[in-house]
Design goal:
The complex is a heterodimer. By secondary structure, chain A is mainly α. Chain A contains 23 helices and 2 strands. The longest helix of chain A has about 35 residues. Chain A is globular and about 70 Å long. Classes of the chains: A mainly alpha, B mainly alpha. At the A-B interface, helix 5, helix 6 and helix 7 of A face helix 18 and helix 19 of B.
Chain lengths: ~500, ~500
């Protein structure tokens, strides 16, 4: 457990080493990056092995950083952070396996990639709002270069849009946090200290601060109508970056909402609750319907990400422990499933067929050309639809149960999103792998597509295993998450800020 | 007044070293260097200048003298001492990046004028008496006008010098007029005494006129809107090392000088911008300048295609943030302001250094001239990444913490209860706008691919060391901001 902060440092060190190795050869950079990511993931798994679930954060590191401003370098973890760092490690390893074919400027690619991972680990492990913010911003900039350099469709536009949205969101967060810090006397940025001082703020101030911080983080979680960076960014990004973006970076936003905005300003949450809930539901449904009519394979997956993240935001907005537990579970589940879907679309299919248009794909007998990809995609699609046996099912079910307790109307409206998800997922499975013209497809000469590599297969197996294990035994994660949601800070949130 | 020349000489050892160095380099050039090959001569005088600054820097770091000197003419407090070291370090960086030998036909004079400018700048930071302050300011300013126009082969350089000189001369006249009014009101030239004499007086019309005069000069020196018009032309036309010095050391020293003038000197008539309605004084005016600079700098920078003009507008935007730091400095002390100005200066001089080196290997006028820099010189591209991201305020680089400490100080004044807090929030939100044009620079340098053969850029060892030191300092001050902030405790 106490070794967990090493995951951050290992990632940053791995970034530097990969950069150095890249000067030698692309293969060296790849292996360095893989070792770095594996080391980080190993550390998170080791920490998970020795983890004793408890309410409240368990301090890992706590040293004075900027004493003049009362800022401490304070890292800590609870069940929520642990769930998400394990996900980060998994997504990092899988992402590297799916970028094994990167040859151009490989050193820089993997350096940026690992720097991003290091920032993400840092966010999930911070117990000081300032430290969290610093890591959050560290995770933003590499995305620009990853997408603009190694991306595909409209990459410079997508990269710029994504980074400006993220940075705009983080500017809101900084404004809200600084406001709270200054109003509290400017003594400390520790989350519990900030929450303690914020409890004495007038209601209007809490409402304003919550709006700034929550909205800032929620932009990155894909809150409707601020989600538009997500589809263009995901589509423009190289496969590994899409996997990370959908898999862990969007979770940064949701995590910031849960860890910072909600405990600091519970009265603000109570005030904005209906707005957030309806925006989340609108996102679920809107993105689902948009996904239903996309012609580009990757856009379908990108919009499905926005739709699934809507469930996370709804779970947070419901403001009770059950829904929040579901939201955290959904973060993990969606991280794995989205990674898998993007891997199939971006790496397995696009890199071989060089098209993502469903109209082009449906005339190719892909299920016979790429059977492994087809099976993976069907399984991932089932998981994405929320079929029992996969991680999406317990997650969305818990969210809906928790939401029902607050408002059955919200729960019913969101449940409609599950149906839409089933519709667009089945449509895209049909169009992509099982073309509408099977007879013609069988007759068409089979293009010899390059076979799937071992790296791709192992990445897919890793992610599939994760979603199935959590689908069958959600209690593995819920046992970590539930106690964490009973900490004094979170209790105040569930009570709406009233003592 | 109790003139103690021994003490004065001891306290001013760095200044003496600079002036002696300047005179020596002129003499030696006449006697020896002139007979060398142009390239060798250039190297010799540059090395000589760098040596003079190094000696001054060693003196500045080792004397550690503090207290009033020569009556109350000079006052060496922490701020003055650190600013002196900072300005000397930035001057050293200027020599490090001055590698374009073709454009400067009189290198010895160039070096001498840089040394004179540095002398003026470090005296400005310590001056506590209005006359000496004005003399120091003029020594620095006139040297900088000359430096801006030093490239006789380009008409833009002459244009830059002329605009800079005309507007600067006007600002100096305003400042002198303001000083004379202050003297007339208080009968004193020493800042703390002026402060004490003003305490019983209310905001008389004469005082307000004096304040406006001073603020005009302040606006000019920091390139704050609406007194910014010289900046884009000066940055664009001046030889790159001159522009770097104007953008960095001159700004740092100017801010420290005006901080000293406004808070310890005129703090009694500061007024208040943290609450509404305003209390009359200079703070509301500075708040206005700050808001105008933030808005104009960030918006105008979006439309630039010339990289130096872009940096100039970004400098105007940064000036807006620094003015906010000046407002907050009354409550927070000068630490946030100094941290911001110094780290900004390092990043700016670094960015100009990269431009100078790219220019040395061809041209570097427009953003597109940076295209493919990562293949032409990974070192330059990497350093540029650090400098620009620091300017953009991305952690863990120093630029982020500079913004952070200033905005925190401004918000501590009265939260969002008044213009100071609103300005801080506006500045935070505008930093998202700023990221766009900073990323445009980085896009050219790190993303855009160029066709054809790669024209590699060779970076001289001195420039390599300078850029790496500057980038290293930004990372160091970013990871450990207390290294700088702690000096003020």
């Amino acid at each position: 457990m106490s070794l967990l902060p090493l995951a951050i440092y290992v990632s940053f060190a791995g970034a530097l080493l990969a950069l150095a190795a890249g000067a030698h050869s692309a293969a060296a950079a790849r292996w360095t990056a893989l070792l770095g990511a594996l080391a980080g993931w190993g550390l998170t798994l080791a920490a998970a092995g020795g983890f004793v679930p408890a309410a409240g954060l368990q301090t890992l590191t706590d040293v004075a950083w900027i004493p003049q401003l009362g800022i401490r370098y304070h890292l800590a973890a609870d069940g929520i952070s642990l769930t998400l760092v394990v996900l980060t490690g998994l997504a990092a390893v899988a992402g590297i396996l799916f970028s094994w074919n990167i040859g151009e400027r490989a050193g820089e690619f993997f350096a940026l990639y690992l720097a991003l991972i290091g920032g993400v680990y840092g966010v999930f492990l911070s117990a000081d709002a300032f430290v969290l913010f610093v890591f959050y911003e560290i995770a933003i900039v590499p995305k620009y270069f990853l997408i603009a350099n190694w991306g595909s469709t409209n990459r410079e536009y997508g990269a710029m849009k994504l980074v400006l949205y993220s940075f705009g969101g983080s500017a809101l967060v900084l404004a809200g946090l600084l406001w709270a810090y200054a109003a509290g006397g400017g003594q400390s940025f520790a989350l519990d200290d900030l929450a303690a001082t914020a409890a004495h703020f007038p209601r209007g101030q809490q409402v304003g601060m919550f709006a700034l911080v929550f909205l800032g983080f929620a932009v990155l979680a894909g809150l409707f109508p601020f989600h538009t960076w997500a589809p263009t960014g995901h589509v423009a990004a190289p496969t590994a970056a899409s996997m990370l973006l959908a898999g862990v970076v969007m979770k940064l936003g949701a995590y910031g909402c849960l860890r910072v905005a909600m405990p600091l300003f519970p009265i603000g949450l109570a005030y904005w609750q209906p707005v957030i809930a309806w925006l989340a539901i609108a996102g679920i449904l809107y993105a689902g319907f948009v996904a239903l009519v996309q012609e580009d394979f990757k856009f379908v997956i990108a919009y499905s990400s926005v739709s699934h993240m809507g469930f996370v935001l709804l779970g947070l907005a419901a403001a009770n422990a059950t829904a929040a537990a579901g939201a955290v579970l959904q973060m993990f589940s969606h991280g794995v499933i989205a990674g898998l879907l993007f891997a199939v679309v971006g790496r397995m299919v696009y890199e071989r067929t060089h098209t993502r248009q469903l109209a082009d794909l449906q005339v190719q007998p892909l299920f016979r050309l790429l059977p492994f990809a087809a099976v993976t995609f069907v399984l991932a699609g089932l998981a994405s639809m929320g079929m029992p046996g996969f991680s999406g099912f317990p997650a969305e079910l818990t969210i809906l149960i928790g939401t029902w307790r607050v408002s059955p109307v919200w729960a019913i409206a969101a449940a409609g999103g599950v149906l839409v998800a089933a519709a667009f997922t089945l449509r895209v499975i049909q169009l992509s792998f099982f073309g509408t013209n099977p007879a013609g497809a069988a007759a068409a000469p089979e293009h010899p597509l390059p076979p799937l590599t071992l790296a791709e297969k192992s990445g897919a197996v890793l992610l599939l295993a994760a979603t199935i294990i959590v689908g069958l035994r959600p209690d593995l994660l819920l046992d970590w998450i539930t106690p964490a949601l009973q900490s004094p800070l979170m209790q105040a949130v569930w009570k709406g800020g009233t003592p | 007044m109790n003139p103690d020349y021994a003490l004065l000489a001891q306290a001013l050892l760095p200044e003496i070293a600079l002036v002696v160095g300047a005179l020596l380099v002129l003499g030696l050039d006449l006697a020896i260097f002139r007979r060398q090959e142009p390239a060798a001569r250039y190297r010799l005088v540059m090395n000589f200048g760098a040596m003079a600054v190094t000696v001054a820097l060693i003196f500045a770091c080792s004397t550690g003298f503090s207290g009033p000197v020569f009556g109350d003419v000079l006052f060496f407090d922490t701020l003055a001492l650190i600013t002196r070291q900072g300005v000397l370090m930035l001057t050293l960086f200027t020599f490090g990046i001055a590698c374009d030998a073709r454009r400067l036909r009189h290198p010895a004079e160039y070096v001498a004028v840089i040394l004179f400018a540095a002398t003026g700048l470090i005296l400005m930071a310590a001056a506590q008496q209005l006359l000496l302050a004005f003399l120091a300011l003029e020594l620095a300013s006139i040297s900088l006008y000359v430096l801006a126009g030093f490239d006789k082969s380009r008409p833009e350089s002459a244009e830059a010098a002329l605009k800079y000189f005309l507007i600067g001369g006007m600002a100096a006249a305003f400042l002198l007029f303001g000083f004379s009014l202050l003297y007339g009101l208080t009968g004193s030239l020493i800042l703390p005494q002026i402060g004490m004499m003003l305490m019983p007086q209310g905001p008389s019309p004469l005082l307000l006129i004096a304040l406006v005069m001073v603020l005009v000069a302040f606006g000019f020196k920091t390139a704050a809107a609406p007194f910014h018009l010289w900046a884009p032309d000066a940055y664009q036309g001046a030889p790159t090392p001159s522009a770097a010095l104007i953008a960095s050391a001159s700004k740092l020293a100017g801010l420290v000088f005006f901080y000293r003038l406004l808070w310890p000197g005129l703090g009694m008539s500061a007024g208040d911008a943290a609450r509404l309605p305003f209390t009359i004084g200079w703070v509301p005016v500075v708040a206005l300048l700050s808001g105008a600079s933030l808005l104009l700098g960030n918006i105008a920078a979006l439309a630039q295609t010339n990289i130096r003009r872009l940096l100039a507008y970004s400098a105007i935007a940064h000036a807006g943030a620094m003015l906010l730091g000046v407002i907050a400095a009354g409550a927070s002390g000068p630490a946030p302001l100094f941290y911001y100005a110094f780290t900004y200066a390092i990043a700016a001089i670094g960015a100009f250094g990269v431009i100078a080196l790219v220019e040395n290997a061809g041209r570097c006028e427009n953003l597109a001239d940076l295209a493919g820099l990562h293949r032409r010189s990974p070192l330059l591209a990497g350093c540029l990444l650090v400098f620009i991201l620091s300017l953009a305020g991305i952690p863990p680089l120093a630029g982020f913490f500079g913004k952070f400490v200033i905005f925190a100080a401004a918000l501590k004044l009265n939260g969002l209860g008044g213009p100071a807090g609103w300005l801080a929030v506006a500045a935070i939100l505008l930093s998202a706008v700023a990221l766009y044009y900073y990323l445009l620079i980085l896009k050219q340098a790190l993303v855009v691919r160029t066709d054809g053969p790669i024209r590699r850029i060779t970076v001289p060892p001195a420039a390599t060391a300078t850029l790496l030191t500057a980038a290293g300092l930004l990372v160091l001050f970013g990871l450990f901001p207390s290294v700088l902030l702690g000096l003020f405790q």
